[in-house]
Amino acid sequence: MRWTTWFLFGLAVAVFGGLFAMVARQSARSPAEFFASIQKKIDAKALDEEAAISNLDLAFERAEAARDANLAAEVRLARAKVLTRIGSWDRARNDLEAVEALRGAPREIEELLVDLEARSGDVTKALARLDALLAKDAGYSAGWARATARRPRRARRRRSGS
Predict the structure, then answer these.
(1) Which residue of 6, 71, 101, 104 is surrounded by the most CB atoms within 10 Å?
(2) How far is CA 108 from CA 74, 112, 138, 143, in A?
(3) What is the average pLDDT across 126-151?
(4) What is the rounded distance in angstroms from the CA atom of residue 53 to the CA atom of residue 38?
């Protein structure tokens, strides 16, 4: 055999070996490790929104396959934040409401839902959520600041539209 044949054979073995190592390494990672690596890439802005959503969808599927409800909720929360940034209100709302149902409506989720409703243009829903949040905790000063900041805008819109 000629030396080029041996060279090409060696190159093919190296490529298949590398491919096998990548697949083995990927499947050896736990869903939590996979999600952590995606989070690092998102935080470093190494992924654009589409790639981030695709990777988070995969992380969510892996978390569900592993029956890890808490990890699935964390993935949904991260995905909702990315979806909110790109203006996919319905998908983001679905993810946030699923996390809210699982975790019992913590303040962080409620605040994200208020922001989502306000950004999507549904100020009435945002104010209703904010009022419910304030009804639970009347000493929530950031909520009061948000409520007073949003109400004058709403009144101005009504006056200008009349």
Answers:
(1) 71
(2) 12, 6, 16, 12
(3) 70
(4) 10
